Description:
By secondary structure, this protein is α+β, with helices and mostly antiparallel strands.
Amino acid sequence: MLDAMQPNDDAYLFKPETYAELRRPLLEASTLPPACYTSPAFYRREVQSIFMRVWNFIGRADRIPQVGDYFTIEFAGVPVIVMRGTDGVVRAFANSCRHRGALLLEGEGNCRAVRCPYHSWSFDNDGKLLVAPEMDATLGFNPEDWHLTPIRLESWAGFIFINFDSAAPPLLETLGDLPTKLASYRFEDMVCVRRKEFDLACNWKIYVENAMESYHIATVHRSTLSRQKGKPSEPQPSNGEYCGLFKEHQGTRALLAGDTGFPEMTHLEGLPATGSWYPLLYPSTMFGCTYDCMWWLELHPMGPDRTKLIVGSCFPRSTVARPDFEEVVQRYYKRWDISIPEDNAISELQQRGLASPFAKPGRLAHAEPLVHTFDNWVVDRVLGVQG
Ligand code: FES
Ligand SMILES: [Fe+2]
């Protein structure tokens, strides 16, 4: 029986021949080898070749509306502070004191200055070192040289992204034509009304693959989303760091069948006026854009088999201002609070099955084109073929 076990050593995982079957056209292709979802070495390579080099989505700027508002994250092992400065600009910094490296802030909140819990070095909201007690005797110590370490942060339509690579191209260049395709949703005029976090016992790619195929809906969401009607989802052309599905249909996709909600946006044009858009912003953020709102699924990789999921819900400012908003929005929350745990549970089951030493690559259905596209995108980067 031992010869039925799949190889998972580093040499096997990092040679192009291992992916020969994945490289074939969709209907001839095999899936990624199971070890790509469990191997610490493969995960480390993903962090280096993907998450340390790309624009990583970290939510909305409206989460920190006031000067001094901040939140902290640990993204792919890097502790980060995101804070609104005295000039109103949102910036990101390494969450590591310039003295001896202590973590400066945890959680989220508002502060007039960032004061280190260890020896009280203090930094202003723009990251400048303000006070460093008892450092005047230290030879050649110039406070100007010891500001917080900035991390690149750029935004699009109220969404913020960070990049750990100083040589990466600008965010908007990376996104290609996606902002134009989605412009009529007017995300910049939306408000994030709820964020919900989940800790998942699965590899980040499992969750992306799930979100980018509709094959599982009839089974996993059989009593919920499968009752929504419409044409099959169609993969869309892309000239940026994204891929996406578009589904032509009537009525919002953010409610369960039978529920009624808010009026549809009247400013939608082109494809957005005829159905719903589901782009995957590589590597790990999925948007759901429909007639009356948008939601996002944001993944933070935490290890080969751990992922943090953040689900954000955004509605047009005019919808949020309605007197019935709080009452009606509960129906949307109900839809997400039922469907998302269904995806979470199946993703954790898939992780457990893939961790078997007897798990092998499988074959793909015609309804899984973007699973194939995404897995090839990952392998291109892990093997250094692209990016
Ligand atoms: S480590 Fe921050 S002040 Fe010493
Ligand atoms: Fe699903």
